[in-house]
Amino acid sequence: MTAIETLNRGSGGQPSTETVISVRGLVKVFKDFWGRPKARAVDNVSFDVRRGEIFGLLGPNGSGKSTTIKMLLGLLHPTKGHIEVFGKSPRDVATKSRIGYLPEESYLYRYLNCHETLDFFGNLFQLPDGERQKRAEQLLEMVGLNQTRTRVVGEFSKGMQRRIGLAQALINDPDLVILDEPTAGLDPIGCREVKDLILALAQRGKTVILSSHLLADVEDLCDRVVIYYGGKIQADGTLKELLTERDSMRITTPPLSQETMQRVLEVIRKDVAEDKIHVDNPTQNLESYFLGVVQRARAAGETSGATSGHHVAAYLQSGGEGKSPSQADKMLERLAAPQAVATPTISNQTAPAAPAVDATKLAALTQSQPPLQSVPTSTTELKIDLSKANEKLSGMLGGDKK
Amino acid sequence: MQQTWAIISLTWKAALRFRLIWVLAVLLVLCVVGLPLIIKDDGTARGLTQILMTYTLSAITAILGLATIWLSCGTLARDVEECQMQMVATKPIHRWQIWLGKWLGIMGLNAALLALAGGTVYGMVLFRSSKLSEKQREILYREVLIGRASVKEAVRDLEPQVEEVFQKEAPQRLTADEMQDKKLIEGFKAQIREAYKAREQIIRPGYMREWKLNVPAAQGFATNHIVVLRVKFMSASGGSQSYPTIWEVGKPESPNQVRATKMLTTDTFHEFPIPANTFEKDGTLTVRLTNPSQNNVPLLAPLEEGLEVLYRESSFILNFVRGLAIIFCWFGLLAALGLTAASFMSFSMAAFACIGLLIVVMSGGILKEVIKDRTLFGRGGHEEAQTEVVWTKVKEGVDVVMIGVYGVLLGVIQAVEDYSPIESLSSGRSITWGQLAKAYGLMWLLFGGVCSTVGIITFTRRELATAQSKV
Ligand SMILES: Nc1ncnc2c1ncn2[C@@H]1O[C@H](COP(=O)(O)OP(=O)(O)O)[C@@H](O)[C@H]1O
Ligand SMILES: [Mg+2]
Fold first, then answer.
1. How far is Cα A9 from Cα B42, in angstroms, rounded to an integer?
2. Is residue B69 domain-resident?
3. Parallel, antiparallel, or unpaired: how do β-strands B208-214 and A224-229 relate?
4. The pTM is what?
5. Looking at the domain assignment, is residue B466 inside a domain?
């Protein structure tokens, strides 16, 4: 899924106006044993999450994302402020049946194997026997752990534990999925699969809240984000609002003849100064390249680690609200046939190669004047410069170290 | 229910996979089989019982009791500390269900382990008893491997006599002022009471003491029903010596009355069987003890424990099971205590607190003295100096607080004493259904109820994500 597709989807009017979560003036101060304030983890945070959207909490480590999520789930009590989840208190037990939660780390019972783990959580959701078994099977299949079902979770690698964690978060077919750094510890394929899964869930009308310090995750997935720093919200809005550089644009085409190119540049030079025009070859980003390589290697055979997941569990597929069935089906198709994932990603995902400007200037970035719709030919695709977006977010966050 | 069941089976799986239950099982069996091997019995029925019942059952109770505390603190506190609780508590399950599920899980394990250990003890007793001499085996089946009810003589009310003597004597011995002093009057009465008690107990040489006991159940006794007299007496010269004593049991002048002269040692309990037909139709039993005049020394039959009739009420196996049920009842309380502590403390803190509390309760003897005396510092004289007045106030303050705390503990200690089935089992006394019901009522409904309510409320209100995982 490309950034542009995400943006389009976001702007496609999908999320309803129904509010799933409403947070007002939330403050959390951690106190020490003697009740003295120790850390102000969340500071006067307000936001709403609407049904059907993918909502991102973005911020560097320790900025208060997990603390916010734990308050949404009733695991921590707010020092101040008000939270409503499905119109109820976060501590309401019944609403928990509509929520799936993946914590920041895999807090699993180490002595249970995958199947028992899912069975246990399925029991907590009071799923009937047959349904529980069925879902557990499908989920294990989906997260690619059906070959390791009898090994205890304690022996798993972090990424494998993460996959189980994700599976347990979905066993109740939740309306609201809360994922705390869902891609942490996953290999690139796993990341991609998780991201695709999240998109598929959103397509099915589920509300997803995810936290991450990984810009790429948020960028690929979220309709709206809040950006945390030091417990405070520093920026919020749709990704489109936040990322569109209104003062530049980019045109991508198949290779053009020297002659055509010259003519195009000629036209542009009339309006724009020579040094403002930037021409280069698009390159794949590493993610899409890596995925391509692995897809090819996969034909070669077995692995002792996690296999990559396959079908989205059937019960998750059937729960769709039918927002845009054709697109959703396409998504599921892709998940069902992994090799299909790479192709669109590779062909679509582009990023400019560093400063090396081709002397012949084969592509150009014009100033914002021509509106998107007026891009002339059908073979020309509009790209938003991803690296610029990354730079911008990085700038706001002061890098994602710590 | 499905949810609670999930928590229960999770607790079991944890115990199984961490091999804790196997370690405990092996430990218990070793204890039951090994202890009697290490400590040789003396070939008598009593020696055997002492080791097989008293020691092993005590050891089992101690091991399982500690394990219960350890497990109950661990199963909840660890889940919170290692953050798994965050996964569970975000599911549609009430916190009280989690708490209850843990408790039930632990009690399930306890039931299994107790059944295993109890079964082994039972097997060992039967096995070892087959090696005793014929005579000793008879004693074993009469005195230990049985559930016997006990009847004592109704306590005679001395108060009317005490009051009478007081009214007669007081005006002559006390001044009008002294008659106003309540303490003094109480002391005076106590002296009179003691004098009466002493007179009740003493049997001078050549005299006889008669007991009349009422055993309604005796109406249904067959002629071979096991009935035993359990007696104890002291001699006025003190020490431990043997004296001839004459015992007459049954209605005087009735053909069923039996009579025997026995050489008995002072200051120990003796048990001897009596025929079931010595009871009268209405269940009355008359027992007479004569101190032969050649003894030349008064004998003392203590009021409380001088004479007791024990008769078969139930089979040993039933009694044994009821005894184990009371031990199980204790474990229930311990588990609730552990879970409650773990509801707001870390594992190590909770385990430490519970075991500490257990030690305090077990060493209840000292505590009881303190509470009886109503002071920690002991009663000072009346002639305190002025400077000590403040100090006295402080001491009184401390005493009030401490006695309040101890008062609660005392209730528990009293329960420990009232419901120690091991003592009953090894002396062949029956643990009645009534006792069993009372034990569960007191320990589960009252103590356990209060304890678990506190635990569940704390756990429900608690923030579960304050601990950071130590991965
Ligand atoms: N249980 C706790 N006790 C004290 N401080 C905490 C606790 N949990 C989190 N914090 C602090 O709150 C801040 C936010 O933490 P967190 O929400 O986990 O950040 P992140 O955005 O990485 O998820 C950090 O400074 C962290 O140290
Ligand atoms: Mg976090």
1. 89
2. yes
3. unpaired
4. 0.77
5. no
